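Possible race condition, two jobs.
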Amino acid sequence: MLSETVDGTRLAYEDYGQGEPILFLASWVLHSDMWEYQLPFFVEHGYRCVALDRRGHGRSDRAPPATTWTPWRTTWPR
């Protein structure tokens, strides 16, 4: 899935299951595919799992130039 931020950057995320949410966020240079073996376990145990691709990683857009990027204006996908 894709969600667009205020500045037009598209952030990719996967959303599975229902229940108490767990956010899966990969470290630098990795993306949400790294969680493919962990997600099914938590979904089967009643959790909602959201795996996010950070800006410039995986299926998310690259960040705009630093002169226009304002971290307090970004939005979280709903």
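Job #2 (started ~2 s after job #1):
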Amino acid sequence: MHNKASAVSTHVTWSDHLTAYDREHQPIYLKLLEAWFDEASVEEMAEILGVDPWEEPVRARDAVRSHLDRVVWLLTTGSKELFKSLPQKCP
């Protein structure tokens, strides 16, 4: 199963700030995080990223690791910047 909605890089370009790639791939990051919490296999998470784990096992493993590293960064450090970018609806 490939995710045709958005192509992913094998390795997320690292930045100490929220990037356009992060914003574009937020839905995928959330699906990946949910799969990780559900103890999904690397193959299942690779499919979320749109990488065929059977045809490209090394790329699948690398993409999953890179994106999970980025998700952890967003949760632990980048979330402050992420929430600053959300529209303020409080009066």
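Residues 1-6 have pLDDT under 50 and may be disordered.
Logs attached separately.
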